[in-house]
Amino acid sequence: MKFQFFWVGKTKNEHYKALQDDYLKRLSHFVRCDVTEFRDGHGNDKKECEGKRILAKVNHSSFVCLLDEKGKGLTSEELALEVEKWQNAGRKEIVFIIGGSDGTAAEIAVRADFMLSLSFLTFTHEMARVVMLEQLYRAHTIIKGFPYQK
Question: What pTM was estimated for this model as a whole?
Answer without folding.
Answer: 0.93
